[in-house]
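[[Sequence with tokens]]
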Amino acid sequence: MVKRFLKSLFQCRHKNALAVGYEGFCPDCGKYIKKQYYVIRCSNCGIKRYGRKNFNIISPKEKFCTCCGSSEFVIEKYEKLKFTDINYAIEVKEVIENPEAINELEIWIDDNKKEANTKTKAPDTPPLINEMKYITG
């Protein structure tokens, strides 16, 4: 247990990563990082509760719900932060081991524009930039 604690002290905490976006590479260690948001709710009444993260464990700040007095809670995971959850959300930056599988790029051409342009250009020429649409998956 002590060895695991000491190892976690020297790992990259990704403090400089993802200041704006939801996923990308860490500038300090080069690993692919994705943001996740966690919101804690009371199991009994469903009210949002303030939370904290200690040693990678997410738990509520208060022992009991201030609305109903229950100690039970559920943790909801979101990939994108909602504006209404901004005060309650706990941000966690998770390392993704295989980023190639996440950011696949597909390029397709709208058939209507392709037919209109085939009359004016040779069939082997690549499509114009404005004819391509990019989709990330």
Observations:
- The beta strands are 23-25, 32-42, 48-49, 51-54, 57-60, 73-78, 90-96, 105-109, 132-136.
- The helical segments are 2-9, 111-118.
